[in-house]
Specification:
alpha+beta; 4 helices; 5 strands; 22% strand; Lambda Exonuclease, Chain A; 174 residues; globular
Amino acid sequence: MPSLLGIGLHEVFRDLFHRLDGGSTRFMTETYVQYRGIVGQLDLYDRYLRTLFDWKTCSKSRLNGYRKDGSPAHYRVQTNTYAAALIEDGMPVEQVAVVYLPRDGALSAMHVDVNPPDRKVVDVAIDRVDALRGKSPQNVTAVPDRWCGYCAHYNPASKDLALACPGTNGKETS
């Protein structure tokens, strides 16, 4: 259900900003971008404000954590990847904003985490992916996170790193 709500929200905002744009080309919505071979779909870029927005739906309790601790690393990497792609294409980006919208509360409870773009965050993440590309799980230190399920080497039942990574902390073997 949370995924459906998120998808629906993106559709509604895409349509809303398309109508608000009225052909002025102020807003780019749901646009595919690419930086260093990483493709993503940005939610909204406002050419007048020079700001990239990314919509996130979450519970009020999770939203309070984001308000207190800021955006988690994977959201910072995601949004800064989009910003780096726009900048590389000659678009000025002065701010990156993650907009947290509560699924279980009023719109007035939303939180917006705004920061200047940080290409270093993206380059460090992509450098790690590039360094791991083509390596066997037995030859790298496992750094488990919420994205393990997307890794081609992930198998939570694996007992043999030569076959697959179980997504638990491990030691580098070579």
